[in-house]
Amino acid sequence: MEIPEHSYNHERGQYDSSMILEELYREYSRGVFESAERVVGVADVDAYVYGLNFVFGEAQLGGPVAVVYLARLKPEFYGRPPDHALYVERICKEVIHELGHTMGLRHCPNPRCVMHFSNSIFDTDYKLLGFCLRCQSLIRRIL
Questions:
Q1: Does residue 23 have an active-site annotation?
Q2: How do residues 80-110 score in pLDDT, each as one tens digit?
């Protein structure tokens, strides 16, 4: 799927994540992804939602679609040298986080849990690559 051109905000130099998520949901609803239960889009752009400077991703809470944005997950974005292992770890954390939202999980107060809200890349790096016991319990109830 192409990122909708109208989702680009020229003043901010970023994409409106909610518009991208809406388009992904339209594609999902039309059956573009066949029998997929959930779809995570991955876009190599910088994005935001209203009220926040940026987002690493966005999901429909309890819905079938989510998007993860790569731009701010790259160490180079912060003036650091490329680090493929760190980059992949960050992507995995964000994908798991957004999939958690599609399953109905909200943000977790535990800063080590993958469902904790990341206000910065430092928050993402501090998280573990998995759910805390509380969130694991919630997932078991959902499934």
A1: no
A2: 999 999 999 999 999 999 999 999 999 999 9
